[in-house]
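Please check our next protein.
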Amino acid sequence: MVNLIEVALDTLTKTTKTDIRLHGVENVPAQPVLYVINHFTRMETILMPYVIKKNIKRYPISLAHHSFFSGELGNFMNKVGAVSTTDPNRDKIFINALLTDSYPVIIFPEGQMIKDKKIIEKGKYLVYNAGIRRPPHSGAAQIALRTEFVREKLRKFRAGGDSSSVDRMAAHFGFDSAETNKIISKETYIVPVNITYYPVRAQENILSKLAGRFVKNISTHLQEELEVEGPMVLGKVDIDINFGKPMSAKNYIASNKKLSKLLRDDNPYLDAGEFKKIDSFKKTCVSMMHDYMNAIYGMTAVNHDHLMSYILTKYRNSFSEDDFKNRIFLAIQYLRKIRVTNCHTSLYRKQFYLLNDDYHEKYESFIKESIYSDYIKLDNGIITKNKERFSRKSDFHTIRRDNIIEVLRHEIEPLRDLTRAIDRLMFLPAFFVRWKIKNHFIQLETDLFEQDYQKYFIKAESKPRNIGKPFFLKRFFGRKGVILVHGYMAAPEEIRPLADYLYKNGYNVYGVRLRGHGTAPEDLAIRKWDKWYSSASRAYIIMKNSVKKFSICGFSMGGGIALMQAANKPGKFAGVIAINAPLKLKSVASKFAPIVNLWNKLLSKIHVDKVKMEFVENTPENPEINYVRNPVSGSNELEKLMKQVEDQLKDVKCPALIIQGSDDPVVNPVSGLGIFEKLGTKDKQLLRIYAKHHGILRGEGADKLNAMVLMFLEKVSSGN
């Protein structure tokens, strides 16, 4: 039966998107172990024996509620090594397993599924049971301490030559007295384990539908369990299982002088009732129980849903969506600062994606669920909480389906350092939060430039720092702004003349540095186009937290990135401007970039570098700014970017200005018209400037271009 279950679960985990991730398995000692595990779902009674057998190579026996031990289900439970809570030999079975190290033991200390995750009330551990809140059971601590107490007694009797007492204990606990030396060479440990699921979403699934079709009068409880736990088995759910540091039962006995004293007398203490009368034993059990409960819930794998649920519950009744996202971001920063050790892997990744207003799967999923469940309304960027929904009490047995936000908030309440930090965050005024976010990203962009500049600096080739460094021209009390994006192989200095002009005319201006630029060609050679896009996204976050209304303007490749930003952020920009943005390049060599790039990769794989063509010579119009060597890999990424931009032009819905030089020697002049025709917005203009050079931000015609840009910005910034 055990092997059949293992095969079935192996098949299930391979064929579904459920991802079981184990952490801390190395903490499990090669000694008798009692696992204490938090209990949130029905499936854990089968899942955890499978996980332990598969990864630790020991199949455990476990304690299960007596209601499961009737009929065919009872036979199944017996075959998989479950022991009923009402079995009169329950304690002896577990003590025997731990003494002889024949089986590990699993006990769920809460005593039942804790569907509401509410385990702390007024600073104490209390769990729901039969309509009341009670402390968690200390049974696991009792088993572990009694086992180790018996082991120490055996050691004393064996050392004293008292074979009669050894035989009595062997007969009582069901082991062969000949194994005594092996038993006393071991030590009992409790290993706390935490299981965290992400995401938790109740929804109809094939299991709940089948049950509804074939089971008459299905109970509300069972329906809820199928709707909540079905997606965990069949859907895309991450299950983080954290194994904590082992807790030595021997050390707990040694730390209690009165309990240690009992080890020196001649009483074998075979009757469990004797221990119940010993205050020092009861106190040690309670102490151990609190320690392993702290360890279990201290290992909760914090995720986005936890933080969003906590903030949504604690924050005021109405607030902007931008403010909500900002506070989530800062909560994640706090989480890293206080070094919460267990987090979902998504929290270790870059978090600016939460703020850049592109599609964010985890955020959108949470907001969609919150709106669907009537927790909030979202209108014109303002979140309004449904106060009645938040104050409504949910039934314990259906709370996972009816009020998952409360469940998620409860789950991180034991992490007091984290929740206290978030509570403090709730008191910060919105303008101060924006200031913190803005400064964080300004500093980040500066740091990234300095790191890249130092790493890739080439004497006599790299330009001075001021050429490549991003800049922010800020106007106090300015309410309008523009993001400027430079072109391929260039640097922020390329857009400086336009930036100065717009700043003098009342605009806050941020000059982006695209990663790989402003340093050296070797830096550009390793960058993918999405890194350039991300640089512009971070500039967006800076400007969004600086002014209320702003546009984005890009030159050459930067124009393509500006258009893609507008496509991905509908309603966020006042307008978008693309100047000499490429859909097609004039250079014949650029068409061969993908082939040459593939050739270089093949040569790298066979370790032949001499015939690789990684760079081609470039003769820029502005050699004091642009690179004089063009990485082939960079040209290949530019081709990919142009294709991506072309595919997304239909999604640009904000006002757009396309400016194209008439005789551009780099970008095929047909690009301007091609972009214009494919734009999704009806509010669009195409302006042509007579120019025989590509870099029309400088030199002849630049003043005319600046005036065109300003006129457009004034129009869209005023809303006319």
About this structure: Residues 2-195+242-298 form one domain. Residues 430-456 form the longest helix (27 residues). The longest strand covers residues 189-198. The chain is about 50% helix and 15% strand.
